[in-house]
Amino acid sequence: MKVLLVFAHPEPRSLNGALRDVAVAELQRLGHEVQVSDLYAMGWKPAIDRADFPNLASDERLLPTEASKAAFGAGELTQDVRDEIDKLLWADVVILQFPLWWFSMPAILKGWVERVFACGFAYGVGEHSDKRWGNRYGEGVLAGKRAMLIVTTGGWEQHYGPRGINGPIDDLLFPIHHGILFYPGCEVLPPYVLYQAGRLDSVGFETAAERLRARMRTLAETPPIPYRRQNGGDYLIPAMELRPELGEPGAEGFAVHLSQEVGSSA
Ligand SMILES: Cc1cc2nc3c(=O)[nH]c(=O)nc-3n(C[C@H](O)[C@H](O)[C@H](O)COP(=O)(O)O)c2cc1C
């Protein structure tokens, strides 16, 4: 398989750097091709601005969605963005690796998504009718690919449990899993989460590394999180609400978008 690992940590000697090396070594040992986008090392430009659209007249109002769609359609996205799009199209599996910072991904990685997941490429595609509402949530340009997060946290596992003060990890990661990866079509595997990352001794690291190697060995067969497909009949169109007869009575929130209950973190 071809694996793209997008890495968002400023320090190669960090725990995240060590885990990345473990993942890449295991994937290569298994004969997979690996490309790493090391965002800090690449000096990745994280913010969308006018410089992303050099063909926009200097006095023209910047409308980010429209500018992105026009530049994508005309093949005029900047070279750094086009290179990342090529890597995404090349990959069978996309891994995003990052330390949890303020309950989400570091800004540089969010900026990678914002710039690379261009309009006309990752969103704003497909027919809108009374049967379909675009190619998204299970359909889209990344359909057929698998995606997975590798995340480290400072907080303990219980802090991210069903009643934990930080909120359940599956809920915190839902916008990334469902809103960023499932949206353009990826099948999303349960995340690899390493809790209490600041407290790891060498035995703890080896245990964590072995758990990560096991996840790399099972990338092809791990069942994805069973998100419901938007155009699969479970949602009212155009309201985009789950049909009232589906889901547990009274259920609401993120969990209703799963077609069955699962424990998703490993
Ligand atoms: C800016 C910043 C924000 C952080 N926010 C969180 C957070 O929201 N939740 C958490 O559990 N840990 C948080 N942490 C701790 C990091 O997740 C933790 O230090 C990291 O996962 C350890 O991996 P590393 O050694 O590779 O950096 C934060 C750390 C920084 C620097």
UniProtKB/TrEMBL annotation:
The lineage of its organism: Bacteria, Pseudomonadati, Pseudomonadota, Alphaproteobacteria, Hyphomicrobiales. InterPro entries: Flavodoxin_fold (IPR003680), Flavoprotein-like_sf (IPR029039), NAD(P)H_dehydrogenase_qn (IPR051545). It comes from Rhodopseudomonas palustris (strain ATCC BAA-98 / CGA009). One of its GO terms (molecular function) is NAD(P)H dehydrogenase (quinone) activity. This is NAD(P)H-dependent oxidoreductase. Transmembrane segments: none annotated. Belongs to the NAD(P)H dehydrogenase (quinone) family. Keywords: Oxidoreductase. Residues 1-214 form the Flavodoxin-like fold domain.
